[in-house]
């Protein structure tokens, strides 16, 4: 399959600057579902990244033990807690988000698997599934059919091999991932160096990013960025392309200032403003 490189001009055709008259009610409501005891950092990073990617409202759905952490670290986010103390057990909420991201830090316990299954049976929104959400799907392959059309999956190579199996070469793995995306009508973000994106019919290769991103939590941040873009009404493939490009661009912009070693996942969020500004064709309108 022909590979299209995601250049700045390709991305500039996707990016839509905010309407000056917009308000938080029209900027999209992103719901991020994740976390467990010892892994609240993952969903906190996703939530923060969504807020810094233009979502008008962001809600976190987390196990009860994360309540104070979330409310303290990210006062801009709203929080709904699960009945489960350390892990998710029953994903129920009364809000109507425009997009949902699920998976970072949730673990794969029985109770979590059950809650995830019940969630999948009901969900009808634009969706991103990452991390342990993908690992659970790998164990329960028949749940893949419950994913809404154009759901975005964001596996790293290990998560991908759990999902579609091991192959002799990266090329074979990519070919099979493309087939998987086509068969299940999903968008796959094949994270790596570089990241590829496919909807099963076309394949895109990202051109941003560097080794500074090789640090825990940068994938959790990507989940928050893409979910926020979906919530703002970007089509799934566009949200994946724009999100992946901006995510890598933060590391490229940071590199001369931070170097590789110093850079952490929070720095992706810190440089998101500069990344958005550098793809804008003109300064933000008043
Ligand atoms: N601060 C936090 O709370 C963090 C929580 N995290 C959560 O921890 C859980 C486990 O996620 P992990 O991804 O760490 O565990 P996994 O077991 O899914 O993946 C780690 C394995 O994948 C391999 N791998 C990763 N990227 C690779 C690449 N580009 N090429 C080849 N191999 C690669 C690693 O070598 C390692 O063997 C998830 O729920 C995740 O969301 C992580 O996101 C890290 C940060
Ligand atoms: N050497 C690298 N060059 C470019 N991007 C990288 C590199 N290493 C990691 N990344 C990016 O960092 C992110 C890591 O995601 P992931 O493995 O899910 O991390 P975590 O689960 O810890 O948040 C992916 O977007 C991946 O493409
Ligand atoms: Mg990850």
TrEMBL record:
Q: Which residues bind AMP?
A: 191-195, 219
SUPFAM superfamilies hit by this protein = Ribokinase-like
Asked if NAD is a keyword of the record, the answer is yes
Provide the reaction this enzyme catalyses.
Answer: (6S)-NADHX + ADP = AMP + phosphate + NADH + H(+); (6S)-NADPHX + ADP = AMP + phosphate + NADPH + H(+)
Ordered alphabetically, the record's keywords are:
ATP-binding, Lyase, NAD, NADP, Nucleotide-binding
Q: Which cofactor does it need?
A: Mg(2+)
Please give the Gene Ontology molecular function terms for this protein.
ADP-dependent NAD(P)H-hydrate dehydratase activity; ATP binding; NAD(P)HX epimerase activity
Q: Does the keyword Metal-binding apply?
A: no
Q: What Pfam families is this protein classified in?
A: Carb_kinase
Supply the PROSITE patterns for this chain: YJEF_C_2, YJEF_C_3
> Which family does the UniProt entry place this protein in?
Belongs to the NnrD/CARKD family.
What does this gene product do? Answer: Catalyzes the dehydration of the S-form of NAD(P)HX at the expense of ADP, which is converted to AMP. Together with NAD(P)HX epimerase, which catalyzes the epimerization of the S- and R-forms, the enzyme allows the repair of both epimers of NAD(P)HX, a damaged form of NAD(P)H that is a result of enzymatic or heat-dependent hydration.
Protein's UniProt name: ADP-dependent (S)-NAD(P)H-hydrate dehydratase
Q: Which species does the entry assign this protein to?
A: Flavobacterium agri
């Amino acid at each position: 399959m022909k590979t299209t490189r995601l250049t700045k001009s390709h991305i500039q055709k996707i990016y839509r600057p905010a309407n000056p008259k917009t308000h938080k009610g029209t900027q999209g409501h992103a719901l991020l579902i994740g976390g467990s005891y010892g892994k609240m950092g993952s969903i906190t990073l996703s939530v923060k990244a969504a807020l810094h990617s233009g979502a008008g409202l962001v809600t976190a759905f987390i196990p009860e033990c994360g309540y104070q952490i979330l409310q303290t670290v990210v006062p801009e986010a709203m929080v709904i807690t699960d009945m489960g103390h350390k892990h998710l057990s029953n994903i129920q909420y009364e809000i109507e988000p425009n997009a949902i991201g699920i998976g970072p830090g949730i673990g794969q316990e029985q109770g979590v698997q059950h809650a995830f299954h019940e969630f999948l049976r009901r969900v009808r929104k634009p969706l991103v599934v990452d991390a342990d959400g993908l690992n659970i799907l790998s164990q329960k392959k028949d749940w893949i059919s419950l994913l809404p059309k154009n759901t975005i999956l964001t596996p790293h190579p290990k998560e991908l091999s759990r999902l579609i199996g091991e192959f002799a070469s990266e090329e074979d793995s990519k070919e099979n991932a493309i087939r998987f995306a086509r068969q299940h009508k999903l968008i796959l973000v094949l994270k790596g160096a570089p990241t590829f994106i496919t909807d099963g019919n076309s394949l895109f290769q990202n051109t941003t990013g560097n080794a500074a991103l090789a640090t825990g939590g940068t994938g959790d941040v990507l989940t928050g960025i893409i979910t926020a873009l979906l919530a703002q009404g970007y089509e799934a493939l566009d949200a994946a392309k724009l999100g992946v490009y901006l995510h890598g661009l933060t590391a490229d912009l940071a590199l001369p200032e931070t170097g590789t070693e110093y850079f952490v996942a929070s720095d992706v969020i810190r440089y998101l403003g500069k990344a958005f500004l550098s793809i804008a064709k003109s300064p933000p309108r008043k």
